[in-house]
Amino acid sequence: MDSVDEDVSARVLLQSVIHTESSRSPITRSASQAQFQSPGSRVRRSIRLRRSDVGALTPQEALKQSIKNKLRESTSRFSLPVPPSKRRTISEGVRKINTPAPATASLLYDDDITPRYLLRGILQTEPETSLLVQDRPVKKEPELPYTNSSLHSNRPSTGLSDLDLPDMTTTVNLSNTVKGLSRKRPRRSLNITAFNRQLEHEDGEGEGGSATEKYLSSLSSASPSSITFSLKTPFVDVQTEKRGFQRKVTNRKKICLEEFDKALQNRQAAMGGDPELSVREDQQGLSETVRSEGFTSGLSDLTAPDITHDIITSNTALYSLPVDTATTFTITTQDKDTITGTQIQREMGGMKDEDEKDMEEVGEQNEDKMELDNKDGEDLAGDAGQREDSVRQKESKSQTEEVEAVADSQTEEEDEVAESQTEEDEVAESQTEEDEVAESQTEEDEVAESQTEEDEVAESQTEEDEVAESQTAEGEVAESQTEEDEVAESQTAEDEVAESQTAEDEVAESQTAEDEVAESQTAEDEVAESQTEEDEVAESQTEEDEVAESQTEEDEVAESQTEEGEVAESQTAEGEVAESQTAEGEVAESQTEEGEVAESQTEEDEVAESQTADDVADEGGQVVEEGQEKRLTSQSLTHNAMHISRRAYCSEGGGKVAGVIEGGRGYKSMGAALHPTETGESGWAGRRSEGDTAGEWHSGPEVGASESAHTRTVTLGSVPPSLLPQEDEQELEGLSRTGTSRGNEEMENSMPPLEMTFEPENNAPHSSNSSLHPITAQSPAEHEEDWDDVEEGDGIRSEELSMKTPAFVREKRNALPIDPLATPTVLKDLQPSVLSGAAAAVKPKAVRGKRTGSAKKDPGLSKSYIMSVFKHFAKTKVSTDVYPVLKEIMERYFDRLADDLETFAAHAKRKTIEVEDVELLMRRQGFLTDSMPVNVLIEKYLPMESRKLLIPVATSGNYVIPKPRRK
Amino acid sequence: MLKKVPKATLKSLMKKKANIRIGTAADAMVELNVLLFLHSLAEEARTKAFEEKSATIKAHHVKAVSKKLLKQARG
């Protein structure tokens, strides 16, 4: 660096360094090719070796470089005659020196090439050397041995660069070297880009290998790339190379380690698809490399001096190869990592790719600038392709780095996503398989498998998330995405629950119909919830403070409650909801009885309403299908599910993430209590929740809430088992409930506000459960215990709610809800539930009446009539947007018509509007004239029934109908 | 074929608008009046649309004609 700096300005030095670095990297690659056996060790070694070697190589390289620099200085590219001769001599000497030691073949090639190639090489080397001149001379001596190694590396590379060789026209080996040089040349010229290009080359090489095997390909690719790099390396000064290597190596190495780990994990997770992707990526890289090669070859063909430059560069590269090889190894390893990362990113989807592209573009621009400074116009073309490749590599690296940085959080998020995905998959499976509990369990196992696959998807998602995070608030985006995913999952879970319930219930058809209704309702609820959740997420993100978050969440809950309330109203209007209404009423009553703080109650009531609406949908479907007992069981199931969901919601209220975690916990508890398969699911949920917690971390209180939710869920789990012994159907229901609860939990996780709303609802379901228990005539003590558990859960929920609400409000709620819920709720719940049920029933009726009234109130004629008549009279096409205008006109017309008729009737001292009044009006309006009698109009416009009323018709028996007007 | 007039709707509408009782035959006459009004409105809107070289009657055409017709319909 120092030498370079001295020689040239900062930019020039940097560029030269970059070029040298790139050249070095190829050299290292060549060495790595020779060394192939240990890629990882090679990488490290390469770095060290490179550094150490650089010193040794430096003398030879320095000599070559100095010669090149001189040539370049004299006639950067065009002044071939004078510099070439000098360089030829020098280069020949250097070559001779180099050849004797390791690579005789290289010497031969060099000799063959000497005339033309020397000139070209001189020309090429000249520009590069100019910057590095001082250092190069010193380094020349040590470089010679390295050159031999580089020559060896060149030979293998030649095989790859056969295409280029013909262009070179000299010996094949030379041509090979030239090819490597040509590739290297653009890289060299691009210095900065050279690294990227090297990476690209590595990628390209890796791509070739990847076709067969990813890792193998990467290794193999690394080796060829190393060769090319080795060729490049000689051009670069030792110092510059060191600089370049250091920078690149550090970045790449870091990225490589993390990326490799990540990539390995990702690949392991999705072995099947990933390899294909990697292959594709490799192919892409290859294509890129091919492009770059083509550019280089074209350059060489076009201009002899360029070729000579290339040759010279190749020679120099050969010299410097040994040192470079180490670097190349490192680069290759890095490239591999990057490749894996890139592959993963590609797998992830267009999102990351876009981000990468952006990054690449930026990098490319920077590189282009550097290249422009350093390189000539000719090199630029080839460099462009290389730059692109390098940019891509850089982007992938940057992405991988970002991924690594975010890795922890992202991995957590990814795990969550994967879990959610797996959950969804599980849901699908559970839906199909849920018919049989055992099957569902086995399915859950399958889900675990699918989860591994999903993990891959999750990784890709996480990568996307990472990108988003890196761009904006990465964590927030990931959270929102995870939340969205959770919502989707919760929806699916809900659907699954409905399905499972249907499957479990013997009445598959009726249940399915009901389930569909419930699903539709849930879908609506989910939409609202998802919106609310999103809002919440945004709010939570903005407000990092837990308190602020809890407040915002409360607000959100209120909003969601309002939305839910609307949904509930619509549901009640639908009429499905007698049960749900009762449940709501129960919830409200239980809440009131519990004596919770008025605020908390109001909030809970809102929540209860929303929950009840949801519950009603589910319950309604279930109830209709099942008998009354079945209804009761279904209600209990729904209640259980609601409880679970409420718990989850409560936890969510504390922290959305926490809610998710809680949901997972709740799942676990439920699964443990009910079924092993469920436990497995709960385990999954727990994992998910853990991931969520790790990712979210937002607030400790939220976590506490989630913990409390878990405890609640545990109590709930204890409740369902008691139900199971009662009745087989109940057991089935319990299973379905667990499924529902899972779904609810998922829903809760997805939508915190809904969860909040569900909490009161959960209370109601508890009460309904308790009521159901007595109905079933089960032991009251057990029921009471269950209820107590439920109450505890409610208390926890209330705590969670309190968490959501402001601190003081929360405290009150926590203190109050727990006590009331614990003991009194059981008995109270039953009574209130009934009352609430009645109230709910009344409410829907009122709503219906209002609706009908509103419908009656709707003024004006029906749209279909007005439009049909208007279209009939218009006798042309009438656009649909005419109706609103027509409606308004008709309204005004009727107002005036009524006023006029009333006035006419009043003027005639009548209290009834008669035909004469209308006739007079029509005459005043111009419809009736002396030439247009009324009867004609009537006969023309009015149908027969109306005509009969207006025009007297004589019938048999001399009856005239209607009676002719008395005038 | 003209669609049958929703008599119930029309009657309720008139009852709501007018504070006086409405004779049985008056309903038919009101219906006739409505039809005539719609007919004139459609005719005017069509001519307006044709004036603007539009084959389809659009909202702005009806709106442009409505003022004149409502003024004309004034008793």
TrEMBL record, chain A:
Could you tell me which InterPro entries the record lists for this protein? CENP-T (IPR028255), CENP-T/H4_C (IPR035425), Histone-fold (IPR009072)
Q: Where in the cell is it found?
A: Chromosome; Nucleus
Q: What is its main location?
A: nucleus
Q: Which terms in the GO cellular component ontology are assigned?
A: kinetochore; nucleus
Looking at the record, the residues that make up the CENP-T/Histone H4 histone fold domain are 867-953
Q: Which Gene3D superfamilies match?
A: Histone, subunit A
Q: Which stretches of sequence are listed as region Disordered?
A: 21-43, 142-167, 340-642, 673-799
| Bias type Basic and acidic residues, positions | 366-378, 385-400
State a single Gene Ontology molecular function. Answer: DNA binding
Acidic residues: compositionally biased ranges = 355-365, 401-468, 481-567, 591-608, 783-793
Q: Could you tell me the keywords of this UniProt record? A: Chromosome, Nucleus
- Which residue windows does the record flag with biased composition (Polar residues)? 21-40, 146-160, 569-583, 764-779
Biological process per Gene Ontology, one example term: mitotic cell cycle
Query: Which family does the record assign?
Result: Belongs to the CENP-T/CNN1 family.
Protein name as catalogued: Centromere protein T-like isoform X1
UniProtKB/TrEMBL annotation, chain B:
Q: Name one GO biological process term.
A: kinetochore assembly
**Pfam families, alphabetically?**
CENP-W
GO (cellular component) term, any one = nucleoplasm
- Can you say where in the cell this protein is located? Chromosome, Centromere, Kinetochore; Nucleus
Task: Kindly list the GO molecular function terms attached to this UniProt entry.
Answer: DNA binding; protein heterodimerization activity
What broad class describes the main subcellular location of this protein?
nucleus
Entry keyword annotation includes Glycoprotein? no
Keywords from UniProt, A to Z, are: Centromere, Chromosome, Kinetochore, Nucleus
The record's InterPro entries line, in alphabetical order, gives: CENP-W (IPR028847), CENP-W/WIP1 (IPR052484), Histone-fold (IPR009072)
Q: Which family does it belong to?
A: Belongs to the CENP-W/WIP1 family.
Please state what the protein is called. Answer: Centromere protein W-like
Its ancestry begins with: Eukaryota, Metazoa, Chordata, Craniata, Vertebrata
